[in-house]
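Q: What would this chain look like folded?
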Amino acid sequence: MTKKAFRPDVDAPEWKGGHTPYDIIKEGTIALLVIALLTLIFAVVFGSPDEAAITIKSWSNADPIDFATTALSELNGTSISASYGAPYNHNGASQQIGPLQLAKWVGVRIPINSAQNFVIEPLKALPNEPTLDADLKQYSSASSSTQTGWLNAYAKASADMKFVKGQVVVNTTNAGPVPVMINDLTTMARSGALDQDLLNDNGFYTTDYTKPLLFLADSQYLGNLATEQHLGGDQWGMMNETGNYPGQAWLWLYTFWYQIPPFNQSGNGDALVWAVMMVLSVLLLLVPVIPGLRSIPRKLRIYRLIWREHYRDSGGSS
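A: My prediction, written as structure tokens:
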């Protein structure tokens, strides 16, 4: 019977040498103090901004023109979320990896109709608005071609949009009820009522922020604010999230891939990043059984640093 070969990264032979006491409390305390000191130093030198969460109310008050423009894109179906495809709607090609139509396989799991969810339904929830109610009925009862004509006329004139005395002003007479709808939605957003309406859609108590987040993500305001805070993809910034823990920091490995080719240049970046993270996650789970990979700690000899006193007393022998 042949003797089984010893596998240094799997088999653990019985230790017959000497033993050295190890004070895990001391080591843990030293590590804690070092990390705490480094955290304090980095926080002072490289402290990130600690900003309050952005809401639709704060956005529409800070930049009502951008809000009104984004609301128009939701109404006419040209916003990013309106044309994204699965899991929100069927309006886009959806994310895929080569021939694999991953998003379409999953289907529309979070149905979003931008015009209805972000504009029309919130406006219908406003009480005691007879003029608005009449305009909503006029818009809903109009044919698709008529609606498109109104929207195109408003979009063309919106290049000179102004915000005067709390009102969105667009000089056009061919946009039907659209000017009233956009103006009233802007007023609703500035009061904070739109935030509440989008959150209450799934019940009074909810943690589902999908709709307000999509609405915000469709704007120019959010991207511009990120650039000002040095949080753009080419700036590699980081910030705190007030009221949320652990915040964005733990997502760095996921968002990292969006900053480099080919992910930052692909229309299927979401699917590609997801695939990479799935592969990395599987590799992490399989570390103990992958030959070579499981031997890295032994070959790097990090254990000699951990057990430095033992190797110092034993003359450095492995």
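The longest helix spans residues 24-46.
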